[in-house]
Amino acid sequence: MPPTRTPTTISVVQSSEGGDRFALKPSLQFILDSDLPFPANQTLAVNSSNTFQAILGFGGAFTEAASYTYHTMGQAAQEELIEAYFGQNGLGYSLGRVHMGSCDFCLETYSEANSKDDWNLVNFTIARDKLYIIPMVRAAMAKSSIPLNLYLTPWSPPGWMKSNGQMNTSLKPGLIQSTQVFQAWALHFSKFISAYKNEGISFWGLTVQNEPEAAQQFESCVYNPEQERDFLKNYLGPRIKQDHPDVKIMIYDHNKDHIVTWVSTILSDPVAAPFVSGVAFHWYSGFQFENLAAAHALAPDRFFLATEACNCPVSLGTWTNGERYGTDIMGDLNNWAVGWVDWNMILNPLGQPNHLNQSCDAPILADAKTQKITYNPAYYYMGHFSKFLPRGSVRINSLCPTQLTCTAFRTPKDQIIVIVQNINDVAVTFKLQHASTTSSSSPSSPSPSIYAAKAIVDPHAIISFAYQDF
User: Fold this and answer.
1) Which of 11, 143, 187, 213 keeps 20 to 30 A from 172, CA to CA?
2) What would the pLDDT profile of 90-148 be if each residue is shown by its tens digit?
3) Catalytic choice (64, 211, 219, 228)
4) What is the per-residue pLDDT across 410-433, written as a single tens digit (0 to 9) for each?
5) Cα–Cα nearest to 133, from 36, 199, 198
């Protein structure tokens, strides 16, 4: 569908520390740019003719902690929670992360393969997943208007496959270095995918290992880049290609500080590289957007997906937690990320359960005793992206005023979405300028058509502007 070529009304939706929550503000109207003089450093310039990566989606993790908390709530509260994340009136999440085996945000440590030296995994079972995780995933799938892209991630193999003999923490390397172990662990991935498929749930993708550089107190398995490369090319890649060829494999799944090294090491290998569809990363070492850009430059034909982030400990209503989400999401999107996936979707008011008694925040906190549901600032910051950028939206060029952060996209329906964040203590007034290409005297010789509108974003606020391309 071609752009309308006529300047349109701009809708304005804001959330702010001052009290707005997806609040519809007065609409704006474009006028000729020449009739609205503004300094360059106060102009947000959008050009829809310059395009970059397409959006895959936004989402969160179906941890056992999240799904258990969901199941402690009554039916009405459960329906509200699923609508809040997956409904058309909610955030419209389209991505979901599922841990294979236990992680720190579980009720206890567990494995799907508890029988030692069961090399063919005859006793493999996902009985534990059927208690809480799978029912919540099914509820989300039933609510969503689009197919959910789910990906699995292991925190640790069964203890009998590891060099330290247990799932929690890790030696270096984490796996016992034997062909028999490598084959069994690769088979474990395949069986997990098949078991979920038998429950009516298909996985879109997987990551090789959660945070492979870290030996945590909880479930961990350390690899260096060469070890992950070799496991991928010799065992996991061939197994998934044989058994589940449609499942996409993502490497790394750790912080942006070392993403360049991992991308370079694994994707420079001609045997490993063909198995890799994308690169997964986290935010815990800092924003480091320049590293993301550098990694993309090494692998422009692979997608980059932010697969985990959270604030710890729990902090009810802290607006800066939401602003941290907004800053990271914008920076990642502006440096080639195709989406952004939060950690626990739901926790209790203590930021738990967690089998180490640790606490983290979540966009939604649900209290089983009172049946109260609390929406944290992060929920609204996530929504200013997920509600407005459907799968297939394409990033377009945007230059932001110095006081603000911003990003811009064109949706599959030719709607322009401009998202602006103000972390300052004062409101910021700026010019929203749009340059499109319109036909001049010759259809093969486009000329820019530039219009503008005066806009304002409140202190500590995020706005999603929406208008039809023209």
Assistant:
1) 187
2) 999 999 999 999 999 999 999 999 999 999 999 999 999 999 999 999 999 999 999 99
3) 211
4) 999 999 999 999 999 999 999 999
5) 199
Catalytic residue among 112, 219, 228, 308: 308
Residues 359, 186: Cα–Cα separation, whole Å: 32
Whether 308 is catalytic is yes
pTM: 0.96
Amino acid found at 384? H
Q: Give the residues across from 344 on adjacent strands.
A: 61
pLDDT for res 438: 52
SS (H, E, C) the chain: CCCCCCCCEEEEEEEECCCCCCEEEEEEECEEHHHCCCCHHHEEEEEEEEEEEECCEEEEECCHHHHHHHHCCCHHHHHHHHHHHHCCCCCCCCEEEEEECCCCCCCCCCCCCCCCCCCCCCCCCCCCCCCCHHHHHHHHHHHCCCCCEEEEEECCCCHHHECCCCCEECCCCCECCCHHHHHHHHHHHHHHHHHHHHCCCCCCEEECCCCCCCCCCCECCCCCHHHHHHHHHHHHHHHHHHHCCCCEEEEEEEEHHHHHHHHHHHHCCCCCHHHCCEEEEECCCCCCHHHHHHHHHHCCCCEEEEEECCCCCCCCCCHHHHHHHHHHHHHHHCCCEEEEEEEECEECCCCCCCCCCCCCCCCEEEECCCCEEEECHHHHHHHHHHCCCCCCCEEEEEECCCCCEEEEEECCCCEEEEEEEECCCCCEEEEEEEEEEECCCCCCCCEEEEEEEEEEECCCEEEEEEEECC
Amino acid (1-letter code) at residue 374: T
Q: Are 455 and 432 in contact (CB under 8 A)?
A: yes
